[in-house]
C-alpha cells in the first residue's frame, strides 16, 4: 500500500521492470523486501571490511557522497559510534582506508 503512494511522485512516476505484471500488494511487499535485503547486505559487507581493516592495523574514514548528508551521519554516529553505513536505507557513504603513517 505504501509503495503505491511512492509510485506517483509528482510528474516522475517510478518505472517498474518490464517483467512486472502490475503493482499489487504482493509485488509491493517483494520490492520492500528487496530493499531491506540490499540494505542488510551492504551493512554486513561494511562490518566485514571494518574488521578486516582492523586486523591489518588500518582504519577507515567515512566519505559521504552528498555533503548535505554529513549532519545526518553525525547524528547517527552520535547515537551509535559503532554504526556502519548505510546509516539509513538508500543512503550512500563511501569508506576510505587509512593506513597509519601514510599521508593521503
Blueprint (SSEs and pairs):
Layout: H1 2-6, H2 25-56, E1 59-64, H3 70-79, E2 93-98
Antiparallel strand pairs: 1-2
Q: Work out the helicity level.
A: 40-55%
Total helical segments: 3
Give average pLDDT, whole number.
Answer: 75
What amount of the residues lies in strands?
A: 5-15%
Sheet/helix structural class: alpha+beta
Number of strands: 2
Model regions low in confidence, pLDDT < 50 over at least 5 residues:
1-10
Mind explaining what this structure looks like?
- By secondary structure, the chain is of the alpha+beta class.
- The chain has one domain (2-98).
- The chain has helices spanning 2-6, 25-56, 70-79, and strands spanning 59-64, 93-98.
- Strands 1-2 form a two-stranded antiparallel ribbon.
- The termini are far apart.
Amino acid at each position: 500500500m505504501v509503495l503505491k503512494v511512492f509510485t506517483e511522485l509528482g510528474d516522475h512516476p517510478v518505472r517498474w521492470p518490464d517483467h512486472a505484471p502490475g503493482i499489487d500488494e504482493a509485488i509491493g511487499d517483494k520490492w520492500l523486501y528487496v530493499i531491506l535485503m540490499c540494505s542488510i547486505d551492504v551493512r554486513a559487507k561494511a562490518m566485514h571490511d571494518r574488521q578486516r581493516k582492523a586486523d591489518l592495523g588500518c582504519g577507515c574514514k567515512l566519505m559521504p557522497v552528498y555533503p548535505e548528508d554529513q549532519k545526518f551521519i553525525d547524528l547517527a554516529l552520535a547515537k551509535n559510534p559503532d554504526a556502519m553505513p548505510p546509516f539509513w536505507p538508500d543512503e550512500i557513504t563511501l569508506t576510505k582506508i587509512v593506513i597509519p603513517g601514510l599521508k593521503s
